[in-house]
Amino acid sequence: MKGGDMSSVSPLVSFVLGAAMATVCVLFFMSATPARRLVDISAFTSAAPDNLTGIASSVSDSDSDAAVADSAAALASTATLAPAPAPVQAPSPWGDLEEVLARAATKDRTVIMTQINAAWTRPGSLLDLFFESFRTGEGGVARLLDHLVIVTMDPAAYEGCKAVHRHCYFLRTSNGVDYRSEKMFMSKDYLEMMWGRNRFQQTVLELGYNFLFTDVDVMWFRDPFRHISMAADIAISSDVYIGDPYSLRNFPNGGFLFVRSSAKTIDFYRAWQQGRWRFLGKHEQDVFNLIKHEMAPKLDLAIQFLDTAYISGFCQLSKDLNKICTLHANCCVGLGAKLHDLRGVLDVWRNYTAGTPDERRAGKFQWKLPGICIH
Ligand SMILES: *[C@@H]1O[C@H](CO)[C@@H](O)[C@H](O)[C@H]1NC(C)=O
Ligand SMILES: *[C@@H]1O[C@H](CO)[C@@H](O)[C@H](O)[C@H]1NC(C)=O
To answer: Looking at the whole model, is its pTM more than 0.70?
Structure first.
């Protein structure tokens, strides 16, 4: 049965790319079939590095090319590479995913997701700061950790996750990318990773879950869900917010992204994935920008751009601590710079939470500016 399915796909694949990689096959097959079928196919095609000891240089941030390179380089100097292992045939990589999603989801089938590599699970890493923000946050934001799924892409990160968190998922890659080696920004493997993340998000939608994807360099101080409109199919953070939440002229940042599972949003993800081939060589955030004007009206899709007063970032910094919900270390290159500035942010936040209501209202607490990136 699987063989039959595959042969019906291959003409399409060869049409597109000639020498077809497994990924291409999966992408096109999936975009033409219902969610359930994907289980068989990915099991069938996952003749890929399942067991990678050592380094992944997965990305958490579309704007943080150098951070990726940094973290990978830092790891390369300390980690030992295992010999390339024989491919392992997983029974179904997605079965496990459904179980993790079911456990972590809210009653209305919403999960929060982030994606990490091994460097970020160490003490003093971004993952530590991420957790610290929830724990020093206000209004019950810490309770949202119950709904957080941490997606890992290498065994070390998976073990690191399990040591500190309940809902960890090991995303086995079937795209042939060797996550042990360093990825240069916009290299073929870098694009493969970013598009892999995008494809994974589509899978979550197809399984019937809404998700809020957050990069791990986003600090969570208050519950951001109250700023996500019930009317929005997609709510995405803004590098630059121009004042109108539904204007497509806002500049999106996929590092903080809510998507409601529906036929419309799944169609949008299909178009998004196809955009990869229409606009060959672009990464997924650029393609989002290129297709939003065409696809939003076509699918009658409400895309809400989140106001940076609440869902903020270094690109357009919210200076009102009474309003801020989340703060993303975007417009910031380099893992060291992010760690430095977010540490400073958390220290100010801690003082703020200890302040009296009067002090808070009077604006006594302000970010320490400038940092390395934050200004
Ligand atoms: C991965 O492969 C290495 C070496 O081949 C082996 O020692 C290790 O136990 C494997 N890990 C997993 C999670 O399969
Ligand atoms: C926090 O408050 C303490 C005590 O007032 C002060 O010494 C410290 O500099 C403050 N830290 C920051 C980051 O503002």
So the answer is: yes
